[in-house]
Design brief:
The protein is α/β, with parallel strands linked by helices. It contains 14 helices and 15 strands. A hairpin with a 4-residue loop joins strand 2 and strand 3. Helix 2 runs antiparallel to helix 11 and helix 12 runs parallel beside helix 14. It binds 4'-deoxy-4'-aminopyridoxal-5'-phosphate.
Length: about 450
């Protein structure tokens, strides 16, 4: 434990020395494969020379100019390129420094857009259980992970949550239209119970992140959700903090569905770990309405920082030039197949799921009955620690409330080569074997 620094817990890790491509080296020269791109951040890998050069070039001009004092060419250009990546009609961009700030921005923009229309009764943000939307209080209020919110409950208004479509745990076929209909009925019931006229927006991870372990919604679910939002006057906001930046095989996961959101929230892969960066990309008319009615009451000192925009532009260049979206699909298929092979050999892998390079597997005591491993086993942290000792970084969660299970995100950078996928899977195989030998004997 460092004398002056603190994080969530007292856990310590080695000091970072250097990072390049998909690898990180600690101060003792141990090498690690970044099998989770940090926290699904480093989509283009580490120390990409193109981004370093783009940042260097901007650094020589201006690192920071307060946005209320100066416009910035690079920030304008970046906004224009991002708007092009978003679905048609979403072309107003507000830059921030990360995912939580972007979620806060979307919540406040949605509320102010409702006020601008004279609709002051709408204030409730609906979201899912489980879900994760960030660490600031507004984002915590919409996050469907109760332990993160409970201590702060007296300080905020409870926001309605509806169960995520956990079709694997529920034993439902994701391709059967009845499955989506089942979960959509839940949503509609809850909309009606809350009073549609009080609801502002539905916030959803189009493909689930760490909270659900790369949950792909059942066929027709996103389209049905869009229709419900239209019917009852809710805005639909996609939290693409984890899915954006090409991770699922398209720049935004929105492209996978026939359902256009009213806003997209982005971060993580947007700055790719080169600078803290987030954004909200909104429907034009919502922003115009707010600006016509007294302006947007919101702002962060470091929002729209030129150096961050230069880093983001550099990252976007790499994603486009190296065709990393297509690569995420191709490599994702390969990695998915390899994870399925591991599942065939390790019966305690209950599920493998995801899209592109947003992949996860779930550990179960019994895959047939969906019985989870005992909580006291702390499988999620044990396997991560074993993999870490073997030089592989993966990202895990034990989810609660409706999805009691240990799942592991396997989300390497999109620049990973096929040979490196082999290397990653080899280390994972070794780690799973060690985990089973050490901890699963008595469970089995
Ligand atoms: N939304 C989602 C879907 C996320 O995965 C995260 C971060 N894990 C956030 C929001 C919050 O982003 P940040 O940690 O950058 O504030």
């Amino acid at each position: 434990m460092s004398e002056h620094l603190f994080y969530q817990t007292r856990q310590t890790r080695p000091f970072i020395e250097r990072s390049e491509g998909i690898y990180l080296w600690d101060a003792d020269r141990n090498r690690y494969i970044d099998g989770s791109s940090g926290a699904m951040v480093s989509n283009i890998g580490h120390s990409h020379p193109h981004v370093l050069a783009a940042m260097q070039s901007q650094m020589q001009k201006a690192t920071f100019a307060y946005r209320l004092h100066f416009q910035s060419e690079i920030v304008e250009q970046f906004a224009a390129r991002l708007a092009k990546k978003a679905p048609l009609g979403l072309d107003k961009v507000f830059f921030v420094s990360g995912g939580s700030e972007a979620v806060e921005t979307a919540i406040k923009l949605a509320r102010q857009a409702a006020l601008a229309r004279g609709d002051d009764k709408r204030f409730k943000m609906m979201s899912r259980l489980p879900s994760y939307h960030g660490s600031t209080l507004g984002a915590v209020a919409v996050t469907g992970t109760p332990p993160f919110a409970d201590p702060f409950a007296p300080m905020m208004k409870a926001m309605p949550k509806v169960r995520a479509p956990l079709h694997y745990l529920d034993g439902l076929d994701p391709n059967d239209p009845a499955t989506a209909a089942h979960y959509l009925k839940d949503i509609e019931d809850q909309i009606l119970a809350e009073g549609p006229e009080t609801l502002l927006a539905f916030l959803v991870e189009p493909i689930g992140g760490a909270s659900t372990g790369a949950l792909v919604p059942p066929a027709g679910y996103m389209e049905g959700l869009r229709a419900l939002c239209d019917q009852y006057g809710l805005l639909l906001i996609y939290d693409e903090v984890m899915t954006g930046g090409g991770r699922t095989g398209t720049y935004f996961a929105a492209e996978h569905f026939d359902a256009v959101p009213d806003m997209i929230v982005s971060a993580k892969g947007l700055g790719g770990g080169y600078m803290p960066l987030g954004a909200v990309i909104s429907r034009n008319d919502l922003v115009e309405d707010v600006l016509d009615h007294g302006g947007f009451l919101h702002g962060f000192t470091n929002a729209a920082m030129p150096l961050a925009a230069a880093a983001g532009m550099g990252v976007l260049d790499v994603i486009e030039d190296e065709q990393l979206c297509a690569r995420a699909t191709r490599l994702g298929d390969t990695l998915f197949a390899r994870l399925k092979e591991l599942q065939a050999r390790y019966p305690f892998i209950g599920d493998v799921r995801g899209k592109g390079l947003l992949l996860a597997f779930e550990l179960m005591a019994d895959a047939q009955t969906k019985q989870v491993l005992p909580k006291e086993l702390h499988a999620h942290s044990k396997l991560v620690d074993i993999a870490y000792q073997n030089g592989l970084i993966i990202y895990s969660r034990r989810t609660r409330n409706g999805a009691e299970g240990d799942h592991f995100m396997v989300c390497p950078p999109l620049i990973t080569s096929t040979a490196q996928v082999d290397e990653l899977v080899g280390l994972l195989d070794k780690s799973l074997g060690q985990f089973a030998d050490l901890y699963l004997k008595e469970v089995a």
